[in-house]
Design brief:
about 100 residues, 3 helices, globular
Length: about 100
């Protein structure tokens, strides 16, 4: 089992449009072999001293996959190519962390 945290930085003012596309994508990804969890999240403001300030132009995707092979297959799925084309004008950058439980 692996965990993936994808931090997607968006162009200012495009988060709502990006999330509309992501809502279309989510059930397709969840139907992929090896997908255990796939969810877009946004920052929640709190008064916790150690928390960074909320980021209005960031979406963090929390994923869980059966293994790296499932993640590789996910990246080449046809709906992922369509997703990338549909959000290219919204996305300023993506950072990915692939983690395993210890």
């Amino acid at each position: 089992m692996i965990h993936v945290v994808a931090t997607i930085t968006l162009n200012p003012g495009t988060r709502a449009a990006f999330l509309d596309v992501f809502r279309w994508l989510t059930p397709l990804v969840r139907g992929e072999d090896g997908c255990v969890e796939y969810q877009a999240t946004v920052d929640v403001p709190t008064t916790l001293a150690v928390q960074d300030p909320p980021r209005a132009d960031v979406v963090t995707v929390v994923e869980k996959w059966s293994g790296v092979e499932a993640l590789y297959a996910h990246t080449t799925a046809p709906h992922m190519a369509e997703y990338r084309a549909r959000v290219k004008d919204y996305v300023a950058g993506v950072k990915l962390q692939v983690l395993e439980p210890v």
